[in-house]
Design goal:
Elements (H helix, E strand, L loop, with lengths): L1 H16 L12 E5 L10 E3 L1 H5 L4 E7 L2 E11 H8 L5 E6 L4 E5 L1 H6 L2 E6 L2 E2 L9 E3 L11 H6 L4 E6 L1
Parallel strand pairs: 1-10
Antiparallel strand pairs: 1-2, 3-4, 4-7, 5-6, 5-10, 7-8, 7-9
């Protein structure tokens, strides 16, 4: 019974605090806009590397069309990022540093465990190596992910995400 009360108390405190995210102290790498409830700068949510990593990182290995052999990607689950900012849309429009855009259904994030990768093979991703942020699907986990549709959703050099 005590555990239930503690969990309920935590949920109430979390809901009361919802709306205002902590501000990053380093260089902003990612800006989320659109239909979000939780912000930290003029109606948007901005993140540096440290604030992204605080959300919790995961890793997986997969083959992809961009690298030879199995590659280890480490990053934040997109589903967790969407929950953190209180995303209320059905799609995200992702924009890269070179203005490439792609649209991804939010449902992909849960169904396929998509991540926003910060590292490749243990090293932070550099701009010239598709970094600093790369939306990656675990392509080896399901045969359906090995096709052009999912490759086109895998944006690299991500800088902006708009929730629609």
């Amino acid at each position: 019974m005590r555990l239930i009360i503690m969990l309920l108390s935590f949920m109430v405190v979390t809901q009361v605090c919802a709306g205002e995210l902590s501000k990053p102290t380093g260089k902003v790498l990612l800006t989320l806009t659109g239909n979000i409830e939780n912000t930290n700068e003029d109606g948007k949510a901005v993140f540096d590397i440290a604030s992204l990593e605080k959300l919790g990182i995961v890793s997986f290995q997969t083959n992809s069309p961009w690298y030879n052999g199995r590659t280890t990607f480490t990053g934040i689950p997109m589903r967790k990022l969407m929950d953190y900012v209180g995303a209320k849309g059905s799609v995200v429009k992702v924009t890269a540093l070179n203005d490439y855009t792609t649209v991804i259904p939010v449902s992909d994030f849960k169904k396929y465990n998509v991540i926003l990768a910060l590292k490749i093979n243990g090293e932070y991703m550099r701009i010239r190596d598709k970094g600093p942020l790369f939306i990656v699907y675990p392509y080896d986990s399901m045969p359906e992910l090995n096709n052009q549709l999912f490759y086109s959703r895998s944006a690299w050099q991500v800088s902006k995400i708009n929730i629609e």
